[in-house]
Amino acid sequence: MHIAIHHRSGSFSDRWLEYCQLHGIRHKIINCYDNDIIEQLNGFTHLLWPITHDVLADIAHSRKIIASAEQAGIIVFPDTVTCWHFDDKIAQKYLLEALGAPLVPSYVFYQKEKALEWAEQATYPKVFKLKSGAGSANVRLVKDKNEAIKLCQQAFGLGFVSYHGYFGDAKTKLRKIGTFPQFVGKLKRFPKYLLSSAITKQQMPREKDYVYFQEFMPGNQYDTRITLVGNRAFGFTRDVRPNDFRASGSGSISYDLKRLDMEYVKIAFAVAEKMRSQSMAFDFIKDENGKPKIVEVSYGYQPKAVYDCPGHWDQKLNWHEGHTHPEDAILEDLLGTIK
């Protein structure tokens, strides 16, 4: 057994390296963007790569390399099945529809005429989204037909900036600072973040030539995040932001199990089994009839929010008390050490 790890500080790989060192697992840090990466991977049994939406190269190129490594017989996380739709809400729409999952009704158009025709006859409000972005970035409530038509015109014209830099959603960032030591830590890292953010913003292409809407589901005071790692389900809720309708990225997390609808857990397990995904986070809300609806899914998530869950459910819905590092669970599943 020999594990290759593409390391990115502040990601899953921090814990993966710690786990390997603690358990004496043979591993090596590699750079998946080296020209001879496929040759370098010769002799490795596993590849771990914490791809992220914040790195343009990851979104543009990682899946080609992952698929090639799989063809070479290497066990990869995330594998192609798990990550092909990562940071692409439109791909998730098609996938969830194909699986018969209870997706929030969603609409995508690639022709301006079709989009405008739909906007003219649609009922409002609707939720407009770009296909990329996390934490409710690039999401807005469309209140009427005129606003929808303007968005359609822009989508098939100049397009939209998809990455808003370090100061994007500044109010939420300030609200999530936490303790004074955390504030000091963020202040020290600020110059590095600012430079990285500026480079990423410059590199990110504009989103254009499509338009994507979802039905607005009123009355939800919070959404529910169910994160699956293999046969484990972790759950918590996120309150909507003040004077807003969005919950993702709010930072207002509750681990009160009384708020969790077990139907969400059942649906997440059923859909993940059809997906054959290694790990997946599902965001749920309820429609006007109280029925669960999936907003979107993602292989990528904040591991600390999952670790802070007081326990998890297995596929038989048995509860297991205690905190679990999702990075450890991912690695243990890959290594076949789950008892």
UniProtKB/TrEMBL annotation:
The residues forming the signal peptide are none
Q: Which SUPFAM superfamilies match?
A: Glutathione synthetase ATP-binding domain-like
Name a Pfam family for this protein: CPSase_L_D2
Q: Report the GO terms under cellular component.
A: cytoplasm
Q: Which GO terms describe its molecular function?
A: ATP binding; metal ion binding; ribosomal S6-glutamic acid ligase activity
State the source organism's domain of life: Bacteria
Entries under PROSITE patterns matching the protein: ATP_GRASP (PS50975)
Q: Which UniProt keywords apply?
A: ATP-binding, Nucleotide-binding
Record InterPro entries = ATP-grasp, ATP_grasp_subdomain_1, CPAse_ATP-bd
Domain named ATP-grasp is located at: 93-147
Tell me a GO biological process for this protein. SOS response
Know the name of this protein? ATP-grasp domain-containing protein
